[in-house]
Amino acid sequence: MRDIFTLEEKKIACNEMMTKESHMEQLILKYFEAEDFKALQKRKIGNGLIGGKACGLLVARKILSVEALECMPYIEPHDSYFIASNVFRDYLEQNDCAKLWESQPKERFKEEETEELQQKLRNGQFSSEVEGQFKAMLEHYGNTPIIVRSSSLLEDGYANMFSGKYESIFCPNQGSLEDRLEMLKEAIRKVYSSMVNPSAIEYRKRRKLLEVEEQMALLVQKVEGQILGDIYMPMAAGMGCSYNPYKWMDQMNPNAGMLRLVMGLGTRAVERTPGDYPRLIGLDRASANFYTTIADRHKFSQRFVDVLDLEKGEIRTVSRRQVMDRLPAWQKKMVLSHDTDAEFMLAQRQDYRNVYFVDCQGLVNNKKFIQTMSQVLKVLEKAYELPVDIEFALKSEEPGNLKINLLQCRPLKPAATVGLKIPEMEKEKIFFDLRKASTRSSKKEKIDTIVWVDPHQYYECPYVKKSDVKGIISKINQVMGEGEKNPMLLVPGRIGTTSPELGVPVVYADISQFKAICEIAYSKAGHSPDLSYGSHMFQDFVEADVFYGAIHENSNTRVFQPNLLEKYPEIFLEICPEETAFAKIVKVYDVKDFETELYLDARKGRAVCMFQK
User: Fold this and answer.
1) Can you give the C-alpha Rg of the chain in angstroms?
2) I need a surface site. Which of 73, 122, 390, 535 has the fewest CB within 10 A?
3) 107-119, pLDDT tens digit by residue?
């Protein structure tokens, strides 16, 4: 490649190596030079495009190097490789998958053919040439753990996000070169096969993308972290949004952005984690904590940490106690806080010891870190001309030295925060009236069906049957989609948790048709809403413009009258006639003839659902 590219040469390089999507292309033409394309070529395996996630990573880093030069000393250089889309195409051809893959969109993903394709993708072989390039990449990384991440052509762009739809697979990357090669190939196969998982297919259906050609490129990244005995993990990791959807203080500015921080691998920052509470930070009021007492801060903190087990070669969840004593002293100060109340009580019994909990308070108190993250988000938002979402990991190899490893960047759907006049209505017609609600856009939505998972009945349901409620919701979701309904779902506790005792363990494909989703508090059963801001499921709701709110047992819930539902036709057994055992737990109310409306005022953070008749 020549040292200087004309605009036309940059466009050709962009379209051959990175993207053909017009918005991203414009950013690349504005910021990239010949040296950037040359650097990419050196880290590229195969021909074709590197996909949306990889493209977003490189574009974001280039923007910061130009527009936020003062931030660069705090940002770790990337150490990534890019497995291009033609490697996937060749893999399909070599493993007798091409015709089956090409027929899938036309056939609307028939279940039996999808299973056959998935099996072939999971058991295919790579050419010797490609394996040679894989080996060269592994020799570069040595025994440093890596992660193989999806970077499909449709992913993380201006039009579609695919949050969490495709797999990301950690490779501990230990042992001989041959062992590590087998580990890498198995990870790649898993990512390839995830292209036909139910959530990905449902997402493509909802976004009318089944007929659009989709190809999978891969982003291979060094896992940021440190060896602590037999485990490997970063000090902390998280995600950030340049727009804060959760305004828990009246003075908080949503446009200042927010962070969601965890100790250890960032998986717990983007997935729903049962019993765990990542640290939420509003960047304009970083020190403001939603929980004001030490007892509450400890109760609603992170109890478990995701790590890579180097001996077993797998990702593992361990208790915070198994990790915190291994951390260097200066890192402990960044992620751990003393429970002074508990320490005082123990001291009264002559038991003198430290009691810690994870809240990342030291990072919150680090003004330079907060300023840098704020500037990173604002600079990227300005360049993208849309709110952005980033993922990052943090390292601190010595006291006072904190580095940010930016791992991902993607544009988000813009928030429309204009106000909306909510009409006054007699209390007896108001289903709920919520303050400090999570509303990114103001609108009025007609609701014709309300699906209610009864909190008490769900609590009384035997544990082994609780997971079956997921299947019931999924069936109702499918019926709602066929009838082009505007349904609302209300569930106890946390939506999408993996622990049925804490809420209904659905995935996005199970609830994709709902226009509004509310988590309901039920203290008798310990059900407590915990809106998962920044998680993959939350991003699905944002992208689909779904209202996602919480009905608490506190002053934020001005009105909640579930007894009003009893006035309306209940049709659960019409939809699921064979599910009589669940007729008390799940109710489906037909409210289409009663002028039921949901009002969302983004400016005031207010959500009101009312029955006009």
Assistant:
1) 25
2) 73
3) 555 666 788 888 9
Whole-angstrom distance, CA of residue 153 vs CA of residue 308: 29
Q: Which parts of 248-364 fold into alpha helices (H)?
A: 267-270, 294-299, 321-324, 329-335, 340-347, 361-364
- Establish how many alpha carbons lie within 13 A of residue 282's alpha carbon, considering only the half-sphere containing its beta carbon: 18
Rounded CA-CA distance 39/139 in Å is: 18
> 240, 390 in Cβ contact below 8 A?
yes
The distance from CA 345 to its chain's CA centroid, rounded to whole angstroms, is: 39
pLDDT band at 323 (very low <50, low <70, confident <90, very high): very high
> Structure tokens of 10?
């940059």
Dihedral of CA 104/105/106/107: which sign?
Answer: positive
The answer, yes or no, to whether residue 264 has pLDDT greater than 70, is: yes
Q: Are the beta carbons of 290 and 152 closer than 8 angstroms?
A: no
Chosen domain end from 192, 222, 252: 222
Q: How many domains does the chain fold into?
A: 3
pLDDT at 499: 82
Of 214-223, 302-311, 353-362, 429-438, where does mean pLDDT reach its minimum? 429-438
147/223 Cα distance (integer angstroms): 6
Is the pLDDT at 571 greater than 90? The verdict is yes
In a domain, 588, yes or no: yes
Q: Are residues 496 and 515 part of one domain?
A: yes
Amino acid at 100: L
- Measured CA to CA, the distance from residue 64 to residue 70 in angstroms comes to 9
Residues 109 and 133 in one domain: yes
Q: Are 369 and 395 in contact (CB under 8 A)?
A: no
In angstroms, rounded to a whole number, what is the distance separating the alpha carbons of residues 164 and 408?
13
* β-pair type (449-453, 487-492): parallel
Any domain includes 1: no
What is the C-alpha to C-alpha distance for residues 180 and 358, in angstroms, rounded to an integer? 34
- Please list the residues that pair with 148 across neighbouring strands: 169, 220
Range of the structural domain that residue 126 is part of: 7-70+77-222
User: Residues with Cβ < 8 Å from 479, sequence gap 6 or more?
Assistant: 575
**Identity at 547, one-letter amino acid code:** F
From the list 395, 140, 167, the residue with the least C-alpha distance to 265 is 395
Contacts of 26 (CB under 8 A, 6+ apart): none
| Rounded distance between C-alpha atoms, residue 521 and residue 514, angstroms | 20
Cα–Cα distance for residue pair 574/71, rounded to 1 Å:
59
In this structure, are residues 525 and 456 in contact, taking their beta carbons and an 8 Å threshold?
yes
DSSP calls for 160-212: ---TTTS-EEEE---S-HHHHHHHHHHHHHHHHHGGGSHHHHHHHHHTT-TTS
Q: Measured between alpha carbons, how far is residue 287 from residues 70, 533, 586 in Å?
A: 24, 18, 41
313: its two tokens: 């070669």
